[in-house]
Amino acid sequence: MSTLWARIEPLLARVQKPARYIGCEDGAATPEADLFGRPDVVEWLLAYPDTYEIGLPNQGLQILFEILNERPDAVAERTYSPWSDMNDEMRGAGVPLFSVDHHRSAAEFDVLAFNLSSELVYTNVLNMIDLAGAPVRAADRDDDDLLVIVGGHAAFNPEPLADFIDAAVLGEGEEVVSDITEAVRNWKSAGRTDRAGFLRELSKVSGVYVPSMYAVTYEGEHIASIEPRFADVPATVDKRTVADLGEWPYPKSPIVPLTEVVHDRLSVEVFRGCTRGCRFCQAGMITRPVRERPAEQVRTMIREGLRSTGYDEVSLTSLSTADFSDIEPVVRGVLDDAQDIPGSCDTLTINLPSLRVDAFTVGLAGEVNNGRRSGLTFAPEAGSWRLRKVINKLIVEEDLYGAVESAFSQGWTRMKLYFLTGLPTETDEDTLGIVELAKNCVEIGKRHTNRASVTVSLGGFVPKPHTPFQWFGQNTEEELRRKIDLVRDAAKKAKGVNVKWHHPDASVAEGIATRGDRRVGAVIERVWREGGLFQEWGEHFDLTRWTTAMEAEGLSTEWYVYRHREEHEILPWSHLTAGLHQDFLWGDWLDALAESGVEDCRWTPCYDCGVCTGYGIEHVVASPIAPAGGSQGTGQDLDRGGEVPVALMPTRREPAMSGDGAGS
Amino acid sequence: MPVAFTEGFTPRAKISFGLALPTGAESIAEYVDIELQRDIAVDDVDLDTLPARLSDALPNGFDVLVAIERETGAASLQEAVTSCTWQLWSTQLAAEDHRDACRLLESTELVLERERKGKRSADDVRPMLLDLRPDPTGDRLIADLVTVGRALRPGELAELAYPRIDARDVRALRTHQWIDDDGTRREVIPLPADVDASALAVLA
To answer: Which of residues 225-264 of A touch B (CB under 8 A)?
Structure first.
């Protein structure tokens, strides 16, 4: 084994947070060195293209790290994007990308596999490939060069990265990493020649998309066709889905970092998938169906995890944790178990992220956080019932006020409400409704405390592939800014209401990368070559880099971001599927425009979105009954709204219509 | 261990480390005070086996060497330690550089411009220098630095002592932390000689 440590260590005194690069974490299932460099062992370098603090807690990466290291024919190590200071030092000293486990050069691995949780990390992906010493463009790679694979939610439209990656994995990785390992092992054992032939074989592995095996043609700006280059390459690539989460109790050995990270606590995934059907939510669409982890396994994983890590806080993760069938008994059981874990009984906090908005949920949250009342977050997402029906976030105001009343009465004084703006059909009345909701929540709070305050957190909506809103033209930067200003101005007069917002310029870059096609790859490469790293970080982001690159490549931001798509247009991801029928998504889009909600199919009859029927899988839910205090679509009157569908708002406002707040 | 916790909504273990080791600096031994719950006597935790048990629970590379009982009400480590001994060296430095560095002691005033918490200031750090001497091999500088008040960091000393090289290329090793007992200094806990020797060997 060759380690780069002697060359890395002198750089550490020159950079911020050197603990990002040293590894040595407790719990890390670091592989044994005697497996390195063998022809019958596939070596994976699992990469998170953001900082160590963001990437270390990522459960997907930890899960695959363990699964691969349990295999006799695989080893996996981890790497994270070096921060800009370390990037400069490494380049200055000629140190390549390295693993944090054994500090081996990336070039010693067979596979460099990225977890893509968002699109603004794409320039970091290119930078890490380059730091690894591989040609940035896949077409320039030789037989001996790294195989570059991406997975994660953003990989459901990997087209902007098509020129830089060898393959993308759609869906869940637990099973497919083994299939890929076997394919690579066979190739490696046979001498690792004929890369193109190997990639063609790889394209036949279910869930694996190899961009170079597909030809894309264009007619003007539109895509004319996306066809496999060979008859044995599948025309459509389907996602992979684990049928039973109970068979995958990972991570078994959670990693405890030596430095502070973003989610510095034990995380246990209680279920995967969500069928609430929020139309803006890509995660909810691409991770169907709902698969709950058996309650007893949840309890065991928490008990063992607390013991092995020493954490006194556990987060029960999922897309909507209060929907877990056995949430109450599990929580009670965990609190009981904590009595037997030294040091935990008095201090254990159970964290329930992604809270449903109702009083039951608040009651639960009150029981489990050990008396802490630091703040409570709800996500109504839109300011009016009309718009919440459009996006299918079916929270009636009574639910929200009930939840807020319950929270203030239990001692909370601060509430945070998440909203999106720039949603389809959104009018200024809807936007201003955000402030009305917040004001009403403060009024409720005043009955209980004179310190009641509500923070509105406002994000610009970016339409995502594989959702009913994939056809929607994103609001322009100016329009988002105008709407944010509307909310800010209205909130100035509302005592107790604070507003925080995400800068809309980053939403434009996200829009380019999210629904981009292969031509956008040149833009990403240009932004990277101009020094655009860490584009999710305000101190590094500059929209001009993106707009300049778009112009230089002859591409229109208007066309890629702000334009409404048509029903039969070939979208860049048309050959990739999360199982959702195209006609289901289009129908759901029309329902959205008609302000018509759909119920959660976990508890109501199937409306055939295509996932369960297409893949022969089904919901794994312990209780067939909707949760107590049910809301958000369960048992509600969901008749259609107006008879005439609301027309789409024009995507670009004329200056005369832009209102007082525009451009400020 | 039956560790005492602070009161309130976010209880924290009553564990206090001594003087923080600057990021990037090395050390032969660091000290930590652990307060036990009120109804627990030190005898209840079995001091003989405690180092091994704690080492097992700690990440790789951390070993607990010695555990002793501290008097109740004794000053915290932060207050009790008044000076530290450091070794400084670099592949870019020779014995002559270390001998030259010792001449800093001849100055009556050593003004260093430095920044902390966003504020720049020019401080006379000469009073922080107790002693400077080459080690027996001549390859390293040994420095005794005062820790009371605004301390002089080893990196800051390196800036003053070796102006021709980048101070970030100078390695710093803390070898001793001293408590002043009525004019004589003593170690917080004297380390067994074999530990001292093996630590020095590892860090060489």
So the answer is: 256, 258
pLDDT digits (tens, 9 = 90+) for A632-661: 545 555 543 333 333 344 444 333 333 333
Strand partners, A75: A43
Residue A373 forms contact with B (CB below 8 Å): yes
Q: Please, which pLDDT band fits residue B45 given cuts at 50, 70 and 90?
A: confident
Alpha carbon distance B115, B119 (integer Å):
5
The full set of domain ranges for chain B reads 78-203
CB B113 within 8 Å of CB B140? no
A256 and B57: CB-CB below 8 Å? no
pLDDT surpasses 70 at A280: yes
Cβ <8 Å between A26 and B24 = no
Chain-chain contact of A25 with B24 (C-beta, under 8 angstroms): no
Reported for A542-551, long-range contacts at CB under 8 A and 24+ positions apart, including other chains, are A543/A477, A543/A505, A543/A506, A543/A508, A543/A509, A546/A508, A546/A509, A546/A512, A547/A508, A549/A522, A549/A523, A549/A524, A550/A512, A550/A523
Angle at B128 between CA B124 and CA B132, to 5 degrees: 115
Query: Which residue do the tokens 């995958």 mark?
Result: A248
Highest mean pLDDT among A139-153, A346-360, B146-160: A139-153
CA distance A381 to A393: 7
Distances (CA, A) of B73 to A441, B35, B70: 50, 11, 9
Q: Which of A367, A370, A454 is nearest to A408 (CA)?
A: A454
> In this predicted structure, what is the pLDDT of residue B70?
85
Helices and strands, counts by H and E, chain A: 21, 19
Strands, E, within A339-443: which ranges? 349-351, 376-381, 414-421
**What is the complex's ipTM, to 2 decimals?**
0.85
B61 touches chain A (CB under 8 A): yes
* pLDDT surpasses 80 at A575: yes
Fold of A5-233: Rossmann fold (3.40.50)
Look-up of token digits 């497996």:
A35
Per CB-CB distance under 8 Å, the chain A contacts of B59 are: 24-26, 256, 258
Distance CA(B85)–CA(A270), nearest Å, equals 52
Considering only the top CATH level, what class is A265-615? alpha beta
Name the band, by pLDDT with cuts 50, 70 and 90, for residue A611.
very high
Which residues lie across from B141 on neighbouring strands? B88, B134
The model's pTM is 0.92
**3-class SS of residue A418:** strand
Q: CA separation (Å) from A518 to A163, A221, A222, A550, B36?
A: 7, 12, 12, 13, 62
Q: Is the pLDDT of residue A110 over 60?
A: yes
Q: In a mutagenesis test of the B interface, which of A16, A24, A88, A260 is the best target, namely the one with the most B β-carbons within 10 Å?
A: A24
| Plot region of A32 (φ>0 → left; ψ -120 to 50 → alpha; else → beta) | beta
Instruction: Indicate yes or no: CB of B169 within 8 angstroms of CB of A13.
Output: yes
Range scoring the smallest mean pLDDT among A135-139, A270-274, A340-344, B69-73 = A340-344
Show the tokens assigned to A530.
């101009």
Does B59 lie at the interface with A, CB-CB under 8 angstroms? yes
The domain limits of chain A are 5-233, 265-615
Q: Do B5 and A26 touch (CB under 8 A)?
A: no
Q: pLDDT digits over A397-450, tens only?
A: 988 998 899 899 988 899 999 999 999 999 999 999 999 999 999 999 999 999
**Cα distance between residue A178 and residue A193, in whole Å:** 21
B174: phi then psi, degrees, rounded to nearest 5: -85, 120
Task: Tell me the HSE value of A238 on the side-chain side, using a 13 A CA sphere.
Answer: 13
Residue type, A76: A
**For A18-59, what is each residue's pLDDT tens digit?**
999 999 999 998 999 999 999 999 999 999 999 999 999 999
Nearest-CA distance A63 → chain B (Å): 21
